[in-house]
Write a structure and sequence with these properties.
Structural class: alpha/beta
Pathway: Amino-acid biosynthesis; L-histidine biosynthesis; L-histidine from 5-phospho-alpha-D-ribose 1-diphosphate: step 7/9
Largest sheet: 7 strands, mixed
Number of helices: 12
Cofactor: pyridoxal 5'-phosphate
Strand content: 5-15%
Order of helices and strands: HEHHEHEHEHEHEEEHHHEEHEEEH
InterPro entries: Aminotrans_II_pyridoxalP_BS (IPR001917), Aminotransferase_I/II_large (IPR004839), HisP_aminotrans (IPR005861), PyrdxlP-dep_Trfase (IPR015424), PyrdxlP-dep_Trfase_major (IPR015421), PyrdxlP-dep_Trfase_small (IPR015422)
Family: Belongs to the class-II pyridoxal-phosphate-dependent aminotransferase family. Histidinol-phosphate aminotransferase subfamily.
Strand order of the largest sheet: 2-8-7-6-5-3-4
Oligomer: single chain
Catalytic activity: L-histidinol phosphate + 2-oxoglutarate = 3-(imidazol-4-yl)-2-oxopropyl phosphate + L-glutamate
C-alpha cells in the first residue's frame, strides 16, 4: 500500500527548544536563552495557570459547556455573534477549518513569500493548489524598505484564487497591512474570494483589527491566537472570526470538540488577565526599541514581538549565537539567508541577546 503523492508538501520546521540544543552541545539548559520562537517572555497568564490546575480533575468530561463559554466570551470581546467564532486547536487548526469550508479539490490559494508555511500546507492537505505573492521588493526598484506589504503587491499576483492570505503583523518581517489595503484587496478580488487576515501578533500593534471590517463585509475572515500575548503556545488554542453568513458552517467542518477542556479554561482565564497582557505588550515594545537602538546592524520596523535583523550569513551567525547561549531564528528557512529573527525577551534576555549578537557579528566580519 502506498501513500498519496506528498511530493508537493513541505515540512513545517519550528524553532528548536532549549532542551534539545543543550543535549546536542552537552551543556546545561540553564545556560541558554531561547529567542527563536516568538514565545511570551513572561510565560503564561498566571490566571490561566491557575485555571489549568483547577481543570485537571475534570478532564474525563468532554468540553462542551466550556467550549461554548469561550466562544461567547470571544464573541463579546469582538462584538460579533457566537456563530462567527471558530475555536480551534491553535491558529493552524483554524486555518484548516477555513480550508475545509472554502476549498474544492484543485482550488488555489494565494500566500505570501516569505511567510508562514502552514498556509500552503493546509491548502494542500485539503487538495488545493498554492500560488505565491512575493513581498520582497524587486531588484532595481526602490528598496528602501526591502519588503512591501501593500495591496498592489497582492493584487499584482492575484489570478482568481479562492483564498488570499494576509499576515498582519507579518512573520518574519514585522511589517503590517493597513486596513485600507485589506479592504482594497477585498474590493478588487472576485466575489467568491475570501481574504484571510492572520493577526496572530495583533496584540503587539496599535493598528485596529480587521475584525472591524466584518460588520459590512462577507469576504474577510480574521485569525487570532492565544499563543503569543497570552503565553499559551503549549495549550494550542486559536480561533477565526468569520462572516456572519457562515452561521451553520462551523458545526460542519470542525473536529469533535475542537479545543480541549484545559485549553478552553485557560483561554477564558487569560481573557480576564489584562495585567499580564499589558505587561507583555509593554515589555515587547521596550525590547523592540532596544534592539533597534543598540544593535549595530540593520533592523526593520516591527509591529510584532520580534525584530528582523540583517546579518549577512544568517546560518553562521545563528550557530555562533547558539554556542554563546542565545537561540535566534535563522531565516534561511523563510528564504532570507541574510537575516535572523530575534524574539523580544525580558529586559535581561534582550540585553544579553544584543550583547551576544554584537560580538558574533564582529567575529563573522573579522573572518
Amino acid at each position: 500500500m502506498e501513500l498519496r503523492d506528498l511530493s508537493d508538501h513541505v515540512e513545517y520546521r519550528a524553532g528548536r527548544g532549549i532542551e534539545e540544543v543543550a543535549r546536542e552541545l552537552g551543556r546545561d539548559p540553564e545556560e541558554f536563552v531561547k529567542l527563536s520562537s516568538n514565545e511570551n517572555p513572561h510565560g503564561p497568564s498566571p490566571k490561566a495557570e491557575a485555571a489549568i490546575r483547577d481543570a485537571a480533575s475534570e478532564v474525563h468530561r468532554y468540553p462542551k459547556a466550556v467550549h461554548s463559554d469561550l466562544t461567547d466570551a470571544l464573541a463579546s470581546k469582538w462584538g460579533v455573534t457566537g456563530e462567527q467564532v471558530w475555536v480551534a486547536n491553535g491558529g493552524d487548526g483554524a486555518l484548516d477549518y477555513v480550508a475545509r469550508a472554502m476549498l474544492d479539490p484543485g482550488d488555489r490559494v494565494l500566500v505570501p513569500t516569505p511567510g508562514f508555511t502552514y498556509y500552503g500546507m493546509s491548502a494542500r492537505f485539503h487538495h488545493g493548489d498554492v500560488a505565491e505573492y512575493d513581498i520582497r521588493v524587486a531588484p532595481g526598484t526602490d528598496d528602501s524598505e526591502d519588503f512591501a506589504l501593500t495591496a498592489d503587491t497582492v493584487l499584482d499576483a492575484y489570478d482568481g484564487e479562492r483564498v488570499v492570505y494576509l499576515t498582519s503583523p507579518h512573520n518574519p518581517t514585522g511589517d503590517r497591512f493597513t486596513l485600507d489595503a485589506v479592504e482594497r484587496v477585498g474590493d478588487e478580488t472576485d466575489d467568491d474570494t475570501l481574504v484571510v487576515v492572520d493577526e496572530a501578533y495583533g496584540e503587539f500593534t496599535d493598528a485596529p483589527s480587521a475584525v472591524s471590517l466584518l460588520d459590512e463585509r462577507d469576504d474577510v475572515a480574521v485569525l487570532r491566537t492565544f499563543s503569543k500575548a497570552y503565553g499559551l503556545a503549549g495549550i494550542r488554542l486559536g480561533y477565526a472570526v468569520t462572516p456572519s453568513a457562515w452561521a451553520d458552517a462551523y458545526a460542519r467542518v470542525q473536529t469533535p470538540f475542537a479545543a480541549s477542556a484545559i485549553a478552553c479554561r485557560a483561554g477564558l482565564a487569560a481573557l480576564e488577565d489584562d495585567e499580564h497582557v499589558d505587561q507583555t505588550v509593554e515589555t515587547v515594545a521596550w525590547s523592540r526599541q532596544y534592539v533597534h537602538d543598540e544593535l549595530d546592524a540593520r533592523t526593520y520596523e516591527s509591529h510584532a514581538n520580534f525584530v528582523l535583523v540583517e546579518v549577512g550569513d544568517a546560518t553562521a551567525v545563528a550557530e555562533a549565537a547558539k554556542r554563546a547561549g542565545v537561540l535566534l531564528r535563522d531565516c534561511s528557512s523563510f528564504g532570507l539567508p541574510e537575516h535572523v529573527r530575534v524574539t523580544c525577551g525580558t529586559r535581561e534576555e534582550t540585553k544579553r541577546a544584543v550583547e551576544v549578537l554584537t560580538e558574533v557579528l564582529d567575529e563573522v566580519v573579522a573572518e
